[in-house]
Amino acid sequence: MTETVRLTVAQAIVRWLAAQYIEIDGVETRICGGGFGIFGHGNVPCLGEAIYPMRDVLPLYRGQNEQGMGFAAAGYAKYHLRRRFMFCTASAGPGTANLLTAAALAHANRLPMLMLCGDTFITRLPDPVLQQLEHFGNPTLGVNDAFKAVSRFWDRITHPAQILQSLPAALATMLDPADCGPAFLGLPQDVQGWAHDYPFSFFDKRVHRIRRQAPDIAEVAEAAALLTAAARPVIIAGGGVQYSGAVAELTAFAETHDIPVVETIAGRANLTNDHPLNVGPVGVTGSDSANAIAERADLVFAVGTRLQDFTTGSWTAFAHDAKLLHLNVCRHDAAKHLATTVVGDAKLGLTAITEGLGDHRAPAAWAEDARAERTKWDAYVADNVKPGNRPNSYAQAIGTVNALCDTADRVVAAAGGLPAEVTANWRTLKPGTVDVEFGFSCMGYEIAGAWGARIAQMEQEADQDTIVFCGDGSYLLMNSDVYSSVLTEKKLIILVLDNGGFAVINKLQNNTGQASFNNLIADTPTATHQVGVDFEAHAVAMGAIAETVSNPGELGEAFTRAKAADRTTVLVMKVDPYEGWTQQGHTWWEVGTAQVSDDEGVRKGHADWESTRHKQRQGV
């Protein structure tokens, strides 16, 4: 007879999570690093009761905002290369609804995150309950159903026995290289506390390993034939290279076959800045060097990227007759734009293809051309980040920090103008140290995501720092995890670069022929009382150290003090909203412009935008 233990659903979930391990480089580590939680009536009576006795095993970080908790979980998972994750628990109703944006970010970026969220009573005896949304024709429909669109795995637990199947299925999804993403479990308030006799064996320690899918032999042969025939091949290296742990294989592949490498935003730190085959970032927020090489390539070999429009320049970055070869563990990504596909793990795939290529090397003149382009771009960046070359700019702040940071410091940016400026101007000192969240391009990720990354970083490299580049708009949107970082002693260095509003969208507004409107505070008609925000005082009020500086020279001195500080430090500097932008390195980007307008500037903007559409590939 099977031995059992009687537990509530909540207790069983927590105990099961604590028993799951992952093998990383021969070391077994608990796969769930803990959780982020805000308690309410929908999760504190039962799930809170279950977590409390396990708090040393699965530490629970108290969030200030559920959306920020989700961002922190994403930052944690990204730092650990999707091999570890955190859970997020929120109460029924608005607490859970606040996680929607974070779940979408994790979904877009293919990041594991487990959401354990309160739900309405399955018996419906007390209906309608506090925070319940009533749908008159469908009593089963509620807020939690909204997560179906932003979850890779979704379930509502309506009986205690269901978690015997649901939990392993959720974890399998989160660990799958091809289907990785957030998992959502709706936990009705009554079901959380219902007891069941669970098999003891369900809670046995289990060690998991990330699956490595070997590529098909025929696909490898076809890839090798394409690369052998190419006169001007280029590798586009994405974030999947890092998730696969294939940076060494990518580097060896490029060096063995003398093929230039360009990087996506997610793959921004695959190669160090000084590697001779690193041509730079490609695409809308890229570099002249990478875009010039991508445009001339006759074979584009994409490795571990979903080929987002910022990478492809809305599919104008490549020649119409260029062939596309794609190595990706996800079939959906590998088959995009009629590419020749190699479906499989990046590490195994690169190894297999290089064996098929033997000692083949691309024409030497092609790599020399790439190096010449990169030399010109390096000169541009060196001038672009130089203090005093123009009014205070994002690029100057980036260059200042880049020159003073340690090689293993982690840089975090998201949404607005800073991701583009970091992508173009940051010079990578060590692989895997840049987190530019442009998968969902989500304002507010910066500080919260960095907090999660810092938790992960202090599990491994406590002597290094996590550095946040944040605009004033994103800071105002979500800053409460400055306080979280202070409470938990997870030091961050946060640069708040204040350009007076949503300056990058103002730039787009102007570039499409429109007048500035509702983006910069100064151009907001309803902002009838123009007043600046004292970001320094605000940060100090949350327990951080803070300084306001007036120029990049002072920023460098303050950054050095921040490195030596014992807690989160916020450095504030005003930057110019008009003249501070990186002017080079951009491909075309498709945005919807007005075909008809009474404004001559808008009509001209539309015509100018459409004038280069002829470069756009039409799916081939």
Overview of this protein structure:
Helices cover 37% and strands 18% of the residues. With 620 residues, the protein is an alpha/beta fold. Strands 5-4-6-7-9-8 form a 6-stranded parallel beta sheet, sandwiched between helices. Strands 14-13-12-15-16-17 form a 6-stranded parallel beta sheet. The mean pLDDT is 95. The longest helix has 21 residues, at 364-384. It folds into 3 domains: 4-208, 3-Layer(aba) Sandwich (Rossmann fold), CATH 3.40.50; 217-376, 3-Layer(aba) Sandwich (Rossmann fold), CATH 3.40.50.1220; 385-574, Thiamin diphosphate (ThDP)-binding fold, Pyr/PP domains (Rossmann fold). The chain starts with a strand and ends in a 10-residue tail after the last helix. Helix 3 packs parallel to helix 5. InterPro entries: DHS-like_NAD/FAD-binding_dom, Myo_inos_IolD, THDP-binding, Thiamin_PyroP_enz_cen_dom, Thiamin_PyroP_enz_TPP-bd_dom, TPP_enz, TPP_enzyme_TPP-bd.
Provide a quick synopsis of the model:
With 620 residues, the protein is of the alpha/beta class. The protein is 37% helix and 18% strand. Helix 23 (552-564) links the parallel strand 22 (545-549) and strand 23.
Identify the notable features of this structure and list them briefly.
6-stranded parallel β-sheet, Rossmann fold, globular, 620 residues, alpha/beta
